[in-house]
């Protein structure tokens, strides 16, 4: 995406409804030897006004859509949640900050994410809703990315 401002203009023009904006602090954890990474899983601790623990399971095999089951719950204290993971042997391996603006369009949740290495649109919903939202935004599904922010950040440094 060219910029978050460009994404906002597209969303407004398409008639999307803005839901809100937050600043996020995200920390990703794994066991020694990259046990979760080898299983294509991700354990994340997020603070964005709330504290959430998310386990992302192995993505499905669809190339156009990144279909990933998530198990998520709220925790009451960020630092205690981190200490809990560390006491179990998990180690922090990736930290990232982002600003996220949430929108609703065509039954699809659209997230405009701003990180220091770029701006991105994330579409969450059924495949039909994602196709419809892409069409209304004038985006080509075939040009979408399914990389993680860790991978995108690494690519930005090359």
SSE topology:
Blueprint: H1 4-13, E1 17-30, H2 35-38, E2 42-47, E3 51-56, E4 70-75, H3 78-87, E5 91-105, E6 108-115, E7 118-124, H4 127-137, H5 149-156
Antiparallel strand pairs: 1-2, 1-5, 2-3, 3-4, 5-6, 6-7
Concise summary:
By secondary structure, the chain is of the alpha+beta class. The chain has helices at residues 4-13, 35-38, 78-87, 127-137, 149-156, and strands spanning 17-30, 42-47, 51-56, 70-75, 91-105, 108-115, 118-124. It has one domain: Beta Barrel (Hypothetical Protein Pfu-838710-001), CATH 2.40.320.10.
Overview of this protein structure:
This protein has 158 residues and is α+β, with helices and mostly antiparallel strands. It has one domain (4-156): Hypothetical Protein Pfu-838710-001 (Beta Barrel), CATH 2.40.320.10. The chain is built from 5 helices and 7 strands; from the N terminus they run H-E-H-E-E-E-H-E-E-E-H-H. The protein has a 7-stranded antiparallel β-sheet. The mean pLDDT is 91.
